[in-house]
Amino acid sequence: MPETLLEVKNLTINLKLRNRAEVSAVDGISFSMNRGETLGVVGESGCGKTLTASAVIRLLSPYTGYIAGGQILFEGEDLTKKTARQMQAIRGQKISMIFQDPMSSLNPVYRIETQMREALRAHRKVSAKEAHRISAEMLRKVGIPLPETRLKEYPHQLSGGQRQRVLIAMALLSNPSLLIADEPTSALDVTIQAQILDLIRDLRDETGTAVMLITHDMGVVAENADKVLVMYAGKVAEYGTARDIFTCPTHPYTQCLLGSIPRQDLDVDYLTTIEGIVPPLEQMPAGCRFYDRCPLRSDVCQEGTPPPRRIGEHVTFCHHASCVLP
Questions:
Q1: Residue range(s) defining the domain that contains residue 298
Q2: pLDDT of residue 172
Q3: Helix axes 112-121, 160-171, angle to 10 degrees
Q4: Where residue 326 falls among pLDDT bands split at 50, 70, 90?
């Protein structure tokens, strides 16, 4: 039976606005991950994907937002109860994160070896010589040629794909149980994207690391994810196995996302479009947050948050949920 690694229960994240008001940017979401499993987190920009990942790894700035409620159970322990010092021992060792832009994550004035050695020695007591050997071996493992040479170079001397591979190598130095990849391929061309995704998948299979993959690309999710969490405006729209959601999407938002993707097996004149944009946090509609853009909306959708409904092997939050083949 799969072992649960991460379980998020009713997580709520409040953000502080300039007028000292507060809004719920993430509102009561729940999901879980097993060891060695990949969870794809999808949704438009502004839906709370990165904010949720930042809460899991406890990287929220206390000046802009905080966890207002819920639990984040990692290996059976609630991370929301951990002190900053306790989280330092977990962050980077048991939970690592690959950020979207490698140039904003790597320090431009330090050599690659210096940055990798610092990340390694923060959690493991190793000599400088051993740290050099481990760093070179990890660069070799992630497919960087001439690792000894690359360790002596600065980030600007590497290509975008090589910088992203360095971040992956740094994230895996301590063999974490959970790897959070926040749009790890968004700034790369399609060939390098495929190589990076293959690398993450191979490392997951080799080490048993669970992966939370945040992306806008439904094709990437279909190819890599075991489970899918569809988020909209800080809430869960649909959550379940990738096979179930891609073959039987039940939430209108999920259906629109899948309908907007060109397919080789269908001859269509027009792709599905979603009118409008994700509403600002301080202007969320009453009831279902997708109401203003939903093609199936009715008066009942404004009466309150849709309750969870189980259809097949996934949960959906919609009054009009029904399986529609994409």
A1: 235-316
A2: 85
A3: 20
A4: low
Helix or strand run (H / E) with residue 119: helix 112-121
Question: b/e map of 203-233 (b: 16 or more CB within 10 Å)?
Answer: bbeeeebbbbbbbebbebbbebbbbbbbbbb
In a domain? residue 322: no
Over residues 229-239, the mean pLDDT reads 96
Structural domain count of the chain: 2
In this structure, the answer to whether residues 199 and 239 fall within a common structural domain is no
**Do 107 and 165 share a structural domain?**
yes
Q: What three-state secondary structure class fits 64? A: coil
The edge-to-edge listing of strands for the beta sheet with 95-98 is 95-98, 178-182, 210-214, 38-42, 227-232, 235-241, 314-316, 309-311
Q: What is the pLDDT of residue 11?
A: 97
| Domain end residue (candidates: 203, 232, 261) | 232
In whole angstroms, what is the distance from residue 9 CA to residue 32 CA?
8
Predicted pLDDT at 325: 62
305 within domain boundaries: yes
Q: Could you report the per-residue pLDDT of 245-292, keeping only the tens digit for each?
A: 999 999 999 999 998 887 776 677 777 888 889 998 888 888 899 999
Co-location of 239 and 228 in the same domain: no
